């Protein structure tokens, strides 16, 4: 499918961007292979016909397409007169090997470092729901890029990142109605509703009326973490809240949350947050 990816904590690095219009209908998409450059374009008016290796795309007004670096692409039909589009050429991200995909099911209240080091796989193509907003974003990005400011490139890259995140989230939201997504949403709701309970496999089977092995495998695939790991995140989020809002010590919080002993609690806390609870407490703003 020649998908275009970006690390979640990296801005897309623009090489060039612009707005074009073919008034006479004498142009078509270039025939080229861009070794280190990904391409994004959005059609404002008319339509653009593009091939990327064996795949064919006809992008209508209000639609967009990502083209992957180092993959041959070329134009098909000439543009219809009056075709107008925006384009962004940005450098391929070389740091994506072995990165986990960002999970749209990240409902944990803890912001963890691995959330930012995940990767985003952008939808290959699609249509925007609010064309005026998207076109305003693109216009603002090009205006920033053309600015004489020393920060013009960074500002343009930041605006492009916001545009790409909007397209990504809209595509993910469009998949929310799939069967697997509905199952995961029900599991997460069940976990949050019972975050104080000691859930076992039978509880999930009774709630979802499905085999636990299947549910566990699906959860791991969709969220990137096990059910137990997700449950631990919920428990540690409660621990952090108790550390913030009370003067309870580690042993007292461990007991409040039902851990067998404070040593096990500390191990789980460090596994989730990356630091021991005593370190986390020292770094908090706590109520007097």
How would you summarize this macromolecular structure in one to three sentences?
Keywords: DNA-binding, Transcription, Transcription regulation. With 288 residues, the protein is an alpha+beta fold. It has helices at residues 113-116, 131-145, 152-174, 179-193, 201-208, 212-223, 227-245, 250-256, 262-273, 277-282, and strands at 5-7, 14-22, 37-45, 47-52, 55-60, 63-67, 73-75, 83-91, 119-121, 125-127.
Low-confidence runs of at least 5 consecutive residues: none
Radius of gyration: 24 Å
Relative helix content? 40-55%
Strand order of the largest sheet: 2-8-3-6-10
Query: Which structural class do you get from the secondary structure elements?
Result: alpha+beta
Q: Could you name the CATH class of the largest domain?
A: Mainly Beta
Question: How many distinct domains?
Answer: 3
Strand content: 15-25%
Distance between the termini: 56 Å
Mean pLDDT over the full residue set: 91
The total of beta strands comes to: 10
Architecture per CATH nomenclature, i.e. the level-2 architecture of the largest domain: Sandwich
Largest sheet report: 5 strands, antiparallel
CATH homologous superfamily grouping of the largest domain: Regulatory protein AraC
**Number of helical runs?**
10
């Amino acid at each position: 499918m020649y998908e275009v990816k970006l690390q979640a904590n990296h801005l897309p690095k623009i090489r060039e961007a612009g707005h074009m219009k073919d008034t006479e209908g004498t142009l078509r998409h270039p025939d080229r292979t861009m070794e280190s450059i990904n391409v994004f374009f959005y059609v404002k008016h008319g339509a653009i016909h593009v091939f990327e290796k064996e795949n064919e795309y006809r992008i209508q007004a209000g639609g967009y397409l990502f083209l992957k670096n180092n993959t041959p692409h070329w134009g098909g039909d000439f543009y219809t007169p009056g075709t107008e589009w925006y384009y962004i050429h940005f450098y391929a991200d070389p740091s994506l090997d072995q990165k986990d995909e960002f999970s749209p099911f990240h409902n944990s209240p803890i912001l963890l470092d691995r959330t930012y080091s995940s990767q985003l796989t952008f939808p290959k193509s699609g249509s925007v729901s609010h064309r005026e907003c998207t076109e305003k974003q693109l216009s603002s990005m090009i205006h920033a890029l053309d600015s004489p400011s020393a920060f013009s490139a960074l500002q343009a890259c930041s605006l492009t990142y916001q545009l790409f995140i909007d397209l990504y989230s809209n595509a993910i939201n469009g998949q929310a109605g799939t069967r697997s997504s509905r199952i995961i949403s029900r599991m997460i709701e069940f976990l949050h509703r019972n975050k104080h309970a000691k859930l076992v496999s039978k509880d999930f089977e009774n709630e979802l009326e499905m085999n636990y092995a299947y549910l566990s495998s699906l959860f791991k695939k969709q969220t990137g973490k096990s059910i137990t790991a997700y449950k631990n995140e919920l428990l540690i989020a409660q621990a952090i809240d108790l550390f913030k809002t009370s003067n309870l010590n580690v042993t007292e919080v461990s007991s409040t949350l039902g851990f067998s002993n404070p040593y096990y609690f500390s191990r789980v806390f460090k596994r989730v947050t990356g630091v021991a609870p005593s370190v986390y407490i020292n770094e908090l703003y706590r109520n007097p």
